[in-house]
Protein 1
Amino acid sequence: MLLQNRTTIIHGGSGAVGSAVARAYAREGAEVHLTGRTRATLEDVAHRIRDEGGIAHVAVLDAVDRDAVERHAAAVADQSGGIDVCFNATFNDDIQGTPLVDMPVGDVMQPVAKAVTTSFIVATAAARHMVGRGTGVILVMAGGREAIPNLGGSHVAWAALAGLCRQLAAELGPQGVRVAWLLSPGSPKPDEPDPDATRLLLPRRPSYANVANAAVFAASDWATTMTATEINLTGGAVVD
């Protein structure tokens, strides 16, 4: 198992991406701590993990509440002896579908502020407990760098996240903590055609399982020299 005896926190753990990552982490031997704003949906994910033989805990909090996130991180570290992985899959409150020239400034900046705020809060809260042990992995779910119209502030938010992750990696790397972000063009509904894949080099966007498996790899010792980097799952929508 790639994450045997690791302690992981998944913020946004009841969403499609967060729940897939949580189940994959548990499958690989990790103890999973799920956070989000709605207990019922978090408990659904936790029950599924437990039914599959994994270990899952639930905490209701808002990732923009720094005090709550700090308290949760401290409680997890105290209970488990540390934090090995922090994954942020929270929603950025994007407002899409309108050209930028027709959008109010507040609507454009809303996902930028949300993405940077939540990622900064959850990453720094976990990092304080990682640096003392000289090890840890911080992962962020982001979007691509492709040029797509009418996405509002989404691209700006993703670019800001990349900048935040690079700076965190530069400051935390010497203390043994890695930082990376996953790029995805979104995932299709399971077992359905994927017409949105026509703009990709590959014929289908990544499934949630594909994203989760990449998150497992990034969190594991197999990726031990990967930091300050993006993990490109865009199927060719983003080409370096």
Protein 2
Amino acid sequence: MGKLTVFALRAVIVALLAGSVFVQAVMVPLLARDLGGSGEGVADLPRIPILLIVVLGFVCAEIVLVCVWRLVTMVRRRTVFSYSAFRYVDLVTGAFTGAALLLWALGAVLAPGEAVAPGIVLLIGGAGLAVLGVALIVLVLRMLLAQAVARDIEASQMQAELDEVI
């Protein structure tokens, strides 16, 4: 992976992390105020569960960003084909799975009553399914990483044997 690519990816990760912190610090309190307002239908929504789901969703995104940062660092150091990479891949899978569960929980919280249209709840459920699909893709990539690590270890052993013969 080239230096420019790593720099660009890290710049994007930093921007996304900064945006996430901004949303948690500024936008979530504004959302809390709006949910507490006297707007028709909005006052019927459960305020605390919605805010908790939103904040935990951003935490899931932040976990993914930090793990990708660590994996990119491992790629630059040429240590990504090791067992230590599995920890970060597993965290990414868990974060995406958690995000899918949070989306479904948000849909369940918004479903009762007339405040939110059923189509919106259905879209949230579909988004949860899409996020779960991403978690499954990462799981498949983890299996590929496991095969690559096994091949790397096998190649190292064969190289050591060859060095002994020579």
Protein 3
Amino acid sequence: MSARMTRINPDELHETPGYHHITVVEAGRTAYLAGQCPLDRSGSLVGPGALDLQIDQVAANARVALTAVGAQPEHVVRSVIYVCSDDRGVLGAAWRRLTDSVIGLAFTTASTLVGVTQLGFAGQLVEVDLTVALPD
């Protein structure tokens, strides 16, 4: 049995590029994934200066973390995406790359995309924070 999840886009709110304004989870266990960074298993930054490569690594890392708790991208109930840029074109491209990634379904839920000035690791361009309703 999976947690019951309902995604809602009220008619009175603007259309979205794939996410939902509201995600309601009835009950169950929840996992909060730490911000997934573009680091390989040894802790080295992947793709210095290459946003697409970093997004691919973040997606791969998030997929591993989801699998570790018995979840899939469709179990994500909330995402926050941080991208080091103030350029809306770059932010939009990051969104599209993530929604086309191995965890793309994670971003059909309540999602927020934020442009920031810097992240925790030198050269880091992207980080993704996920909240998951764990299946029973």
Protein 4
Amino acid sequence: MSGITYVRGDATVPSVKGVKIVAHVCNDMGGWGKGFVLAVSRRWPEPEAAYRAWHRGRADNDFGLGAVRLVQVERYVWVANMIGQHGTRTGSKGAPVRYEAIDTALARLAGHARELGASVHMPRIGCGLAGGTWTRVEPLITERLTGQGIPVTVYDHGN
């Protein structure tokens, strides 16, 4: 039992009361423009602007695999940009997903969620363009978030 709630819908429109964090995985190359980030950008401009500025200033900040930045987009809604993939394409080193980085980012996300008293909402992170498998990601979410009492809802888009 994972403790994760699964629903059909759009993770950028969490329909629960209280503070919410919409979490997603970004790459470590500064690229933003495919996958779930398009839905994020359609709804709020701030997460993309924050990610690009974070990447631009990477020589002087924590931008890199496993890092997390929260961006407040509404009074009770934050977006968590989590760096969990290396590059953007599958190549000789395999898919871009980095499970260890996602694990680290989720542990950091848990701290933010506890601080804010927030629930976490996400697509199947790391399993789209990053090329990961849910059987590897789900246990990380269970250990780092739901196992710590943080409510998590995973959204499957479409019918």
